[in-house]
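Workshop exercise sheet. Pairs work together: one partner reads the sequence aloud, the other fills in the structure field after running the prediction. Swap roles for the next sheet.
Pair: D.N. / O.F.
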Amino acid sequence: MRKPRTGARTVPRTRKARLRVAKVDPWSVMKVGFLLSVALGVCTIIAVAVLWMVMDAMGVFAAIGGTVSEATSTDGGGGFDLEGFLSLPRVLTFTSVIAVIDVVLATALATLGAFIYNLSAGFVGGVEVTLAEDE
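Structure field:
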């Protein structure tokens, strides 16, 4: 019998498997799409609030509001009040409405995409994926 060499290294074997994604469950796609779009909506609302606060602290609304008010003023009265129009509650309300619409549309589009993928996978066989496992 031969003794194994003590200085030899063992090379790890890699097993590979080719798999096919033949069908996607629309219900699970809808749940994941809903959760991701809700997270994106919350991030959007927070980002808009932070951006509004930074711009307000820098005096952007006051400077632009003064220019707009001066440009739209008439002899008899004042001009357009941009600072009152772009108040934080109004901006966050508008952003929240847009975020809710985005949640509904993104969830519906993800679910529709799952149905379309299942139809096309029936014709062409689906997407092939190669998985590798190191031993």
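Discussion prompt: Strands lie at 14-21, 127-134. What would you look at next?
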